[in-house]
Amino acid sequence: MDRRPLRVVRADRPVTGGVRRVVATAEEARRALQDEGWRVAVLDAGSRAELFAQLQRALGRSGGANLDALWDLLREVETPLALIWESWAEVAAADPGWFRRVLAVFEARGGEPGEPVVLVLL
């Protein structure tokens, strides 16, 4: 497991896939990412169930509610996609191990070929 700090989105560098930590409002992050050509969805999920439900809605797909299902959802992304997750700290506090595994799935997906996917934590 990579224990380095999360990379921060900076105005002087292009955004790539993976996981990024941002100090901004959801609206500021959404506008900046859209200006870069990303399709953006804002997630306000404070639990596992809410996260999967909101991801499925944002991607227009149905599926399971586990990490394999998350991988499958992210693998099917057809345009650059930024998911802005506002209430991630609630999930991280409730189940830190699971939260780290979610981040690992996004980081792994960020390194795959195809359209990039980035998870932005506010």
From TrEMBL:
Residues 44-109 form the Barstar (barnase inhibitor) domain. It holds the Pfam family Barstar. SUPFAM superfamilies: Barstar-related (SSF52038). Gene3D superfamilies: Barstar-like. It comes from the Bacteria. Belongs to the barstar family. This is Barstar (barnase inhibitor) domain-containing protein. It comes from Desertihabitans brevis.
